[in-house]
């Protein structure tokens, strides 16, 4: 049995929980460091990264998640989750002084496509995901503006478009929201990473 | 801050109505579990973001002041809205009058992230609400009962806000409205298929939408609670009653220590099921907003009764 935590400070928590439960995982919602023991993987959901970082700081959650990540816990971050996994965030003043999770050797840019009027859907070819294009939902989404050699680029919005999905070892991150679709292929990919 | 909301933001090309519905309802899903705060200056917006708000509502006067000062309340000055958009990286909402589709066009042109078609402002149309399907930008609308919520969703609202009684600091109307809406949803879920036709008639809402809610046991959009939330315990109670999040209007910046109270309400919303955390968040906050008992507000001045 695979046990996955979903960080439940704020955001699209129930959507990830439903998708993972549907794939047979046992899911635990994480609001404090107490729930982190015995997890096979952790999801950082979409939401507002500034709000999550502040809520996490109150209970020291991301410092603890960072330790688990360093000892090999697989983590899947979507949208805000990608920002929290990024080692560097451009124009990240609103996150300054708050612990994030880190670990992905990328530079992320928040709200990189623009405001809500620039939110969109697009079919993406995602490496490691078989079958038709992935129906990606981008909402005030971030972009990955730089990656180090250790990072595998899984998807761009177009051949020469910005990077919107990456993997580095057990860390998987997307600018878009697979949890808002009925397509569970990226969650399956993450569960296969967790099951090693 | 060119990467945040700036006037250079463009509308994504080629969005279909389905794309628009998914991304607009989706933004509200990203706000779940959070607090949206009314702000009247860029400085207050910064305080809200620092306190952990998931979005801010940019307006010229908080509801308590609109109530105290009277007169016609309208859309805010574009300069104020743009200054707030440039100050914070979280989503910025702004209010248009009920039925005032040109104020909504202006707010869309200003590239706000969400429009609140709000009873807190003076209604512009006592018959029709805005046809929200004509807009690219998402709308949140108030509701006091399920039928009202469903009519707003049919008109294109991407998010519902139970109304409460804004500017009072009295949580009793917020309580009444969320209990009414969640109770009516439970009632629908208990009906047999052949009873849903009459239910739709009584709710004055489309049958297909009524049937969908009966089957799923929930609204197809996110629902926050608003109107009278003034303390961490108020916010946590609304979350325990099934709210997806809370709007706090006058409750923060009309209190003695807005910085502390804002963070405390956020904390109680996150940990809404943990009374020890709520107790801790409730300590030493200074004066709450003074408030008015809803019972003392004469019926013509009750904002929740605006909207149809």
Automatic annotation (TrEMBL), chain A:
> What Gene3D superfamilies is this protein classified in?
3.40.50.880
Please state the pathway this protein functions in, per its UniProt record. Cofactor biosynthesis; pyridoxal 5'-phosphate biosynthesis
Task: Please provide, in alphabetical order, the Gene Ontology terms of the cellular component aspect for this entry.
Answer: cytosol; glutaminase complex
Catalyzed chemical reaction(s): L-glutamine + H2O = L-glutamate + NH4(+); aldehydo-D-ribose 5-phosphate + D-glyceraldehyde 3-phosphate + L-glutamine = pyridoxal 5'-phosphate + L-glutamate + phosphate + 3 H2O + H(+)
Q: Which GO terms describe its molecular function?
A: glutaminase activity; pyridoxal 5'-phosphate synthase (glutamine hydrolysing) activity
- Any idea which positions bind L-glutamine? 47-49, 110, 139-140
Q: What is its EC number?
A: 4.3.3.6, 3.5.1.2
Q: Which UniProt keywords apply?
A: Glutamine amidotransferase, Hydrolase, Lyase, Pyridoxal phosphate
**Active-site annotation:** 79, 177, 179
What GO terms in the biological process aspect are recorded for it?
L-glutamine catabolic process; pyridoxal phosphate biosynthetic process; pyridoxine metabolic process
Q: Which InterPro entries did the record assign? A: Class_I_gatase-like, PdxT/SNO, PdxT/SNO_CS
HAMAP family the UniProt entry points to: PdxT
**What family classification does the UniProt entry report for this protein?**
Belongs to the glutaminase PdxT/SNO family.
Function description: Catalyzes the hydrolysis of glutamine to glutamate and ammonia as part of the biosynthesis of pyridoxal 5'-phosphate. The resulting ammonia molecule is channeled to the active site of PdxS.
Q: How does it assemble?
A: In the presence of PdxS, forms a dodecamer of heterodimers. Only shows activity in the heterodimer.
Q: What is this protein called?
A: Pyridoxal 5'-phosphate synthase subunit PdxT
The organism is Raineyella antarctica
From TrEMBL, chain B:
Catalytic machinery residues: 95
Ordered alphabetically, the record's keywords are: Lyase, Pyridoxal phosphate, Schiff base
Tell me the Gene3D superfamilies matching this sequence.
Answer: Aldolase class I
Q: Which GO terms describe its molecular function?
A: pyridoxal 5'-phosphate synthase (glutamine hydrolysing) activity
Q: Which Pfam families match?
A: SOR_SNZ
Q: Which reaction does it catalyse?
A: aldehydo-D-ribose 5-phosphate + D-glyceraldehyde 3-phosphate + L-glutamine = pyridoxal 5'-phosphate + L-glutamate + phosphate + 3 H2O + H(+)
- Which CDD domains does UniProt cross-reference here? pdxS (cd04727)
User: Per the record's keyword annotation, is DNA damage included, yes or no?
Assistant: no
Quick one: which pathway? Cofactor biosynthesis; pyridoxal 5'-phosphate biosynthesis
EC assignment: the record states 4.3.3.6
- Residue sites binding D-ribose 5-phosphate per the record: 38, 167, 228, 249-250
What residue stretches are annotated with the PdxS/SNZ N-terminal domain?
Answer: 23-226
Q: Which family does it belong to?
A: Belongs to the PdxS/SNZ family.
Protein's job:
Catalyzes the formation of pyridoxal 5'-phosphate from ribose 5-phosphate (RBP), glyceraldehyde 3-phosphate (G3P) and ammonia. The ammonia is provided by the PdxT subunit. Can also use ribulose 5-phosphate and dihydroxyacetone phosphate as substrates, resulting from enzyme-catalyzed isomerization of RBP and G3P, respectively.
Q: What is this protein called?
A: Pyridoxal 5'-phosphate synthase subunit PdxS
The coding gene here is: pdxS
